[in-house]
């Protein structure tokens, strides 16, 4: 069916009647929820993934993204209803589909170089099955201009974008692990930029069927790509500013969070929360999309913020050394418990987790490093260079908190103190109330809160 010959209302009717086939390439943390929300809304959905085990399980109704609330039930329901199935055959999916969505990972290496090969590989596969009237959408977060760089690949199909043979758009995912279903369904408006007005009209109709917050249309594909990238850059830069102001507060013996919360009572001020660093697949990655794609501009603020936020993990070790020294104890051979391996509480993800460089740095100082995380196990600890231990099973010289798990926020501080030779907490996520900790006899240090 040619999508580009339909009016918006005609498209919506066909969509809800199950006559529109959508292929979602990438059935990971963002692609699988999106595919199944479309299936729930009425579309015939094909989930495409390169992993045979994932595909086989999905076709049995078994969800592999188990940490995403309510997704398992949704996948099972859609498979049972026949509105969703998965495949490793991307060419066949393209041949069957009316709309193809690319939602595969886009990451950087340690030097910030962007890895887009998965996106180009998917475009190549789609070109082998692309038909007149189809629409190709990228939802993966990418450097602005990436979507349009796929045009020569897609045109290997023999179709021409400039002739209106197919449509092309970018509609960035705006989701977070743990709340993906909520986010896709309407936590935020959907951003869409397309190659022409007709493609934009059809896609507005499609996303309106699943997103209650509405649509924000952008005048260009490149502009739509910039929206998501800039959201991440904004947060990274402002976290960097908060961290730098917190370091100043440490130097001047001022309580950073007290100052920040007071300043934020003014409506034009929104100082973020300082901490042990910025983790995940998004915020620490997207700044490099801007930095490495700039030909004339040398993005100084963005680059400095990125460097500063990476430094904060090492500052946690500096605070640990200062805290131990105040008890006339050195870091060498000290028994350190690192609470948290994941980059964020409640989510088992390690990308750019502050715990990783913290553990590595502690090992360089010949500390005796242990770790506990309620979502992890001994294999995870060993992979990052620490010994696995239960929370209350040893005598610690210091505890460093690197993840804001609910279990850490609700810790029994009296029990913790009983298991410490030195009552020293270095809190990288502001999980514990410093007043309560100090009342219970702890020396409590955090970024911007350095009092011995």
Report on this structure.
Homotetramer; probably dimer of dimers. InterPro entries: 6-PGluconate_DH-like_C_sf, NAD(P)-bd_dom_sf, UDP-Glc/GDP-Man, UDP-Glc/GDP-Man_DH_C, UDP-Glc/GDP-Man_DH_C_sf, UDP-Glc/GDP-Man_DH_dimer, UDP-Glc/GDP-Man_DH_N, UDP_ManNAc/GlcNAc_DH. It holds the Pfam family UDPG_MGDP_dh. It comes from Methanococcus voltae. The radius of gyration is 25 Å and the shape is elongated. The protein has 2 domains: 3-219, Rossmann fold (3-Layer(aba) Sandwich); 302-450, Rossmann fold, CATH 3.40.50.720. A hairpin with a 5-residue loop joins strand 5 (107-108) and strand 6 (114-115). The mean pLDDT is 94. It is built from 19 helices and 17 strands. With 452 residues, the chain is an alpha/beta fold.
Q: Give the strand order of the largest sheet, numbering strands 1, 2, ... along the chain.
A: 3-2-1-4-7-8-9-10
Distance between the termini: 70 Å
Average of pLDDT:
94
Radius of gyration: 25 Å
Inertia-based shape: elongated
Can I get a quick summary?
The protein has 452 residues and is of the alpha/beta class.
Topology readout:
Layout: H1 8-16, E1 21-25, H2 31-41, E2 44-48, H3 52-59, H4 71-81, E3 84-87, H5 90-96, E4 99-102, E5 107-108, E6 114-115, H6 117-127, E7 135-138, H7 146-149, H8 151-154, E8 167-170, H9 180-187, E9 190-194, H10 197-208, E10 215-218, H11 221-251, H12 256-263, H13 286-291, H14 300-326, E11 335-339, H15 355-364, E12 368-372, H16 378-383, E13 387-388, E14 398-401, H17 406-409, H18 413-418, E15 424-427, H19 434-439, E16 443-446, E17 449-450
Parallel strand pairs: 1-2, 1-4, 2-3, 4-7, 7-8, 9-10, 11-12, 11-14, 12-13, 14-15, 15-16
Antiparallel strand pairs: 5-6, 8-9, 16-17
Domain UDP-glucose/GDP-mannose dehydrogenase C-terminal: 337-434
Family: Belongs to the UDP-glucose/GDP-mannose dehydrogenase family.
Subunit structure: Homotetramer; probably dimer of dimers.
């Amino acid at each position: 069916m040619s999508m580009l010959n339909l009016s918006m209302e005609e498209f919506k009717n066909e969509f809800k009647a199950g006559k529109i086939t959508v292929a979602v390439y990438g059935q990971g943390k963002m692609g699988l929820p999106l595919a199944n929300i479309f299936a729930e809304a009425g579309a015939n959905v094909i989930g495409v993934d390169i992993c045979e085990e994932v595909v086989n399980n999905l076709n049995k109704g078994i969800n592999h993204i188990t940490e995403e609330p309510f997704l398992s039930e949704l996948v099972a329901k859609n498979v049972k209803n026949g509105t969703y199935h998965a495949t490793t055959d991307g060419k066949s999916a393209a041949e069957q589909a009316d709309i193809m969505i690319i939602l595969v990972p886009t990451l950087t290496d340690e030097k910030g170089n962007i890895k887009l090969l998965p996106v180009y590989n998917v475009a190549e596969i789609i070109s082998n099955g692309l038909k007149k009237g189809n629409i190709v959408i990228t939802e993966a977060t990418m450097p602005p201009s990436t979507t349009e760089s796929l045009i020569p690949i897609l045109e290997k199909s023999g179709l021409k974008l400039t002739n209106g043979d197919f449509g092309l758009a970018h509609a960035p995912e705006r989701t977070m692990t743990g709340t993906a279903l909520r986010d896709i369904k309407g936590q935020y408006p959907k951003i869409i930029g397309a190659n022409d007005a007709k493609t934009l009209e059809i896609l507005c109709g499609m996303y309106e069927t699943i997103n209650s917050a509405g649509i924000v249309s952008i005048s260009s594909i490149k502009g739509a790509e910039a929206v998501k990238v800039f959201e991440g850059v904004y947060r990274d830069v402002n976290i960097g500013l908060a961290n730098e102001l917190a370091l100043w507060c440490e130097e001047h013996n001022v309580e950073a969070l007290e100052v920040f919360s007071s300043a934020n009572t003014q409506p034009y001020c929104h100082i973020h929360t300082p901490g042990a660093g910025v983790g995940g697949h998004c915020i620490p990655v997207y700044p490099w999309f801007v930095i490495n794609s700039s030909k004339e501009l040398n993005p100084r603020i963005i680059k400095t913020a990125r460097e500063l936020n990476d430094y904060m993990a090492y500052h946690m070790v500096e605070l640990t050394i200062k805290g131990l020294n105040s008890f006339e104890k050195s870091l060498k051979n000290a028994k350190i418990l690192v609470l948290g391996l994941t980059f964020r509480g409640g989510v088992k993800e390690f990308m750019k987790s502050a715990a990783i460089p913290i553990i590595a740095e502690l090992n360089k100082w010949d500390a005796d490093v242990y770790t506990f995380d309620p979502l992890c196990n001994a294999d995870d600890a060993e992979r990052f260079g620490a010994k696995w231990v239960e929370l209350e099973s040893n005598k610690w010289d210091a505890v460093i908190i690197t993840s804001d798990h609910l279990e850490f926020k609700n810790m029994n501080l009296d029990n913790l103190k009983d298991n410490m030779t030195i009552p020293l907490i270095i809190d990288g996520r502001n999980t514990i109330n410093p007043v309560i900790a100090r009342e219970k006899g702890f020396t409590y240090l955090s970024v911007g809160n350095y009092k011995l």
